[in-house]
# Entry
Amino acid sequence: MTPQRVAALGPFFAFETHGTDGPVAPWRSMAELLDRPAASAERVAGARGHLAAAGGQPPEAVERRVAASVTHLGLAARVLSPAFGVAVLDGALFGYGLREARWQPTPGGLFPLSLPARAAVPLADPAELAERFAAEVLDGAVRELTEAFAAFGVPPRIGWGNVASAVNGAAAAVVRSAPQLAGRARQLAALLLDRPPLRGAGTVAADGTRFRRRSCCLIYRAAPDRAGGLCGDCVLSAPPGVRGAAPRS
# Structure
């Protein structure tokens, strides 16, 4: 496993590595999102301001929980994508917790990320790889994020829906950048969505090409009159061949 090979899959997969010494500026420990509520609050406030500006509104016009959900989705996608890339490329587990990760908290989802320098564990059986990925990545760093953002009004149903969307997004990014890996990426995503903690958070079509989550990330509510567009995988949009959509709330 080399970070360069993984980064070739797309910007969300890029990462650097670090040893056991403490972070040196500009790097910071991502544990601050768990231990210092102000760090998460600052990031939510930044997203709130950005969403409000996009709609020509003052920040207070955007619900805090909406900004928090969008922030959580971006963080979850950034944190899980490197491990997903390693799993698809090498059939290996690269697990880490949020306390082991470091970041440079620039605005948006594509902040610089550094992960512990350790060898990935080869796992030949795709089901075992998915099981270990769920236990060590989704139930590790990603669960830590999801539980931390509950304090900002992001309930578990929405939080894990965001994670399911991030997993599907990682698979879709691999398919675009490395079509020869499409089968492995879609298989891993489907296996992860079929086991805890993501079981029930979304569904994948039999051919693995279409995904639909069972909750909404709430971003449509950031637009004026809460009338923004819906994401392509949103539960509130009508699936192909079905008229109408679920009511918005």
Summary: Strands lie at 16-18, 28-29, 92-93, 102-103, 113-116, 121-122, 202-204, 211-213. The chain has seven helices and eight strands. Residues 240-249 have pLDDT under 50 and may be disordered.
